Amino acid sequence: MAATSSQTSHIAKYDGRNYSLWKLGLWVLLEEHNLIDIVTGEDTLPDEEMDDDGDIENEEEIKEWKVKDC
User: How many domains, in total, are found in the chain?
Assistant: First the structure.
């Protein structure tokens, strides 16, 4: 999910001295889009679960994760 300029306008531009302020703004944006767990690595790509026919049972879950990871 791409962030628009209106969604990122509140984030201070990083200038080499304002890391804390920049990080806070970025963190808030990631929280708004429910992406913190992907960024921190807590939410990882689900393993494929196959049924008896060899079809992927959790294909939708995998697709949803990939959309968030883009």
Answer: 1
